[in-house]
Structures are given as C-alpha cells and as structure tokens.
Amino acid sequence: MPTDVVLVRARCLNLEVAPLARDLAKAPICLELGAGFCRSAWSEPSGIAYLYLSLPHRTALSLNTLARQFDALGSSAQLKVSRLALMADIPGASRGHKANIHYAVEMTPEESWELELQRWYDSEHLPGLASVPGCVHAQRYWNYDEGPRSLACYDLVDEKVVDAPAWLAVRNTTWSARMRPRFTATIRTTFALQS
N or C: which end of the chain has fewer CB within 10 A? Predict the structure, then answer.
C-alpha cells in the first residue's frame, strides 16, 4: 500500500518512549528508507504511545516486512504497526508555537459514507479546527491496517483548546451533526507530545 507514515502503537511507560523511538529508528527498513520520527506521544491513562515514522516520500510497503523488522528488535513493548496514507496536512492558527498535546480522533465511516467523510474533512472540519487559536498543526491519515480507518490528529498548545468556543463551533456544524452518527469504532485520545 502507498505509505507516507508508519504508525507504531506501543504499550509502555512514559520513560520508555524515547528509547523505543531510537530503537525503532535503527530497524534496517527505517535506515534503508531514510525514515525518521516526526512525533511521538504518550497517553498516561492508557499507557499507549503513538510513534509516527515519517517516510521521505510515498512508498509501497509490506505490513509483514515492517512487523517482522520491528519484532526482531526484541522490544518488551507490545507493538502494533499500521501503514498510513496522508490525506491532509494543514498548518494551524498557532503554527510556530510549541505543541504540548497531540489529540487523535480515529474512526471508521459506515459503509458507503467514505466519500462524504473525505469531502467533510477536506472542505470543513480539518480546516475549521486548524484555524482555531491553539491548534499548531492538523493532519488526517487513512489507515490501511491496525485500528479504525481514519485518523485525524491535532497538535495543540494545551488541552484547553478542545473546550474553546471556536473549537466547539466547528464540531457542532450542521454537516458535522450529519457525519458524526456515521462514525464507527471511534477512539478519541489525548496524548502528551514527547518530541
């Protein structure tokens, strides 16, 4: 599948995230592809880390090859690997500021709603949330593998951004109200950014 980013999910302690990212970056396939981590984030309540490995260009990758190479590192963390295709990448209203929070929304649209989901995210939702003060960066990916199919993620200055009136206004549009019931397998996670 055409891949822009490899997402590695790991169950680990906060102190283990940076060493794990260094170990994963040393995997032969990462060195061969010239890949590097664009961000790593950790959620204290779940003990889950999301490590995003950015590829220098879109590449067709085999999930089995990726999983075998990462498994060969012998990490004690339970690793789950997904290939992601970048669908949208928007600088936020607060670009240039330090992001401390990584807010991820994952879901799979109901059957036959995928195209409408793409239009909604591209035309209204992602640009709208990116324009909220406190949003540093907004991205959306299509997940070919582990977990829900759509992953929208927002790097934020702090946790309060998602409760701000401007953020809530974007979440509560007529189009959003029509789309939200079409989400299945929804996961919303607030992470502390590690890098």
Answer: C
